[in-house]
């Protein structure tokens, strides 16, 4: 339970894309029927000689906005409890949303190390736009493109320092 890196954030920001990049074929098979667990996927990853478990959240609960929001809140609370490090992913193409602000507040109140991953930074213009996310107040803010992988190495270098 000690080397868990949890990826949290709103739907569609790119959590599963990063997760799949980190996990490849090493998907853990979780045989558990609880709804919250069903909404989490665990896999093993390696970086800089460290082995750790990555958790992807929010994959399967797809109902109303209300269900989304409470599901995201519970995923964030579980991450705060179980993870060693939390990657909070946001999306440069939507900018900062109310739900991003809410999650940011929950994470700031926790004492877990949090890495803000501003995703979909595919080009230079988006890198300029991405600077607005510094206002969420996370000292550890990284800009990446999970699709191309650019910037993900720098994020992982920092994250596995905690492993
Ligand atoms: P999740 O709901 O947070 O797990 O998001 P997904 O990983 O399912 O991605 C949502 C959508 O964003 C998909 O169409 C992805 O292909 C796309 N996406 C993910 N990462 C990037 C990225 O770095 N750049 C761009 N342009 N699209 C991305
Ligand atoms: Mg997903």
Automatic annotation (TrEMBL):
Residue ranges of coiled coil: none
Family per similarity comment: Belongs to the TRAFAC class TrmE-Era-EngA-EngB-Septin-like GTPase superfamily. EngA (Der) GTPase family.
Residues of the full protein shown: 50 to 212 of 482
Superkingdom, natural source: Bacteria
Binding site for GTP 1: 9-16, 56-60, 119-122
Quaternary structure note: Associates with the 50S ribosomal subunit.
Purpose of the protein: GTPase that plays an essential role in the late steps of ribosome biogenesis.
Protein name: GTPase Der
Residues of the EngA-type G domain: 3-163
